Amino acid sequence: MRINILSENVELYQIPIDVVENQLKDELLKQLCVTSSGYFPLALGHNLKRPANSFTAILYCTSGVGYFKYKEKVWEVKAGDCLFCLSDIPHQYWADKKDPWTIYWSHVEGFDCKKYWELLGVTVENPVLKIDIVPSIMGLFRDICDTAKKGYSNYNAYYLSSCIRQIFSIMIRLKFDNFDSSQTNKRFSDVLNIMNEKIRENITIAELAEFSCLSPSYFVRKFKTNFGYSPIEYFNRLKIQTASHFLSASDLSIKEIAHHLGFEDPLYFSRLFHKIMKISPRDYKKKNKVI
Q: Of 50, 135, 208, 244, which one is least surrounded by beta carbons within 10 A?
């Protein structure tokens, strides 16, 4: 493993291994823990070849160009990209010789990592996310560096964990926004709008698929992949969300609310409400009445 940083103003904060081991026993930190971090501006000569490790290295490029190599494949990393060097795989990354990258970086461990990678779509074959230059993400990485240099207390570690979670959450939000912007996925955005417009009606898979200009079977598969539920399950949850509002903020009876949202059978509505909300509509109304 070789690191050669020739530029000035380099920041590197490595938490001692015994401190990391203790932090990873903490109930909160073992879910997601920042174990080291830094800032490498115009990192001419930066070249690191790393064996498989327990942590994932996250590099956010704010200018210049760098490269990442896994096995025989090489990815280019440019300004606005975020590179995820996943744990347990040997890899190499380096700065371009003519236009070296500037990067904020952090190493993270914890049980929650794999779920975040899944949400972000990060895999061994997809290690680079196109994020763009986002001031809030840069600010959070700056906070991580500024906090890391203050010491190794668990209170600082909690804040580091909170910052990296915020970074991941912003990236997930941006991914969804980018998802909405593509032509195919713009159709799914239109489908969600149709669901909200027809919240008081019933709608079929065939009708929703027609709005998306996709076959019903492909539409259902694609919808569930992106939203976690089948279209009808998602639509029912929108209805129950609206029902919750009516129950707490109106004098409508449960029967009237059910009818208002397109449920002909109030008993079916009550069963569905209980299944989703884990409480009956009657009890929900008692506990959450605001008028």
A: 135
Do 110 and 197 reside in the same domain of the chain?
no
**How far is the C-alpha of 215 from the C-alpha of 155, rounded, in Å?**
52
Contact 153, 112 (CB under 8 A): no
Give per-residue pLDDT as tens, 138-158.
999 999 999 998 988 999 999
User: How far apart are the C-alpha atoms of 63 and 46, rounded to whole Å?
Assistant: 14
Distance between CA atoms of residues 210 and 218, nearest Å? 12
Q: Taken in order 233, 238, 242, 247, is the CA torsion positive or negative?
A: positive
pTM, rounded to two decimals? 0.67
Averaged pLDDT for residues 42-64: 93
Average pLDDT, stretch 106-126?
Answer: 95
Alpha-carbon distance of 179 to 249, in angstroms, equals 34
Q: Which two tokens stand for residue 55?
A: 């942590």
User: Whole-angstrom Cα distance, residue 131 to residue 99?
Assistant: 20
Closest CA to 211 of 229, 194, 228, 232: 194
Domain count for the chain, please give it.
2
171-209 tens-digit pLDDT: 998 887 665 555 556 778 788 889 999 999 999 999 998
How many Å apart are CA 144 and CA 128, to the nearest integer?
21
Given 180, 209, 226, the domain boundary residue is: 180
Q: What is the CATH number of the domain that holds 271?
A: 1.10.10.60
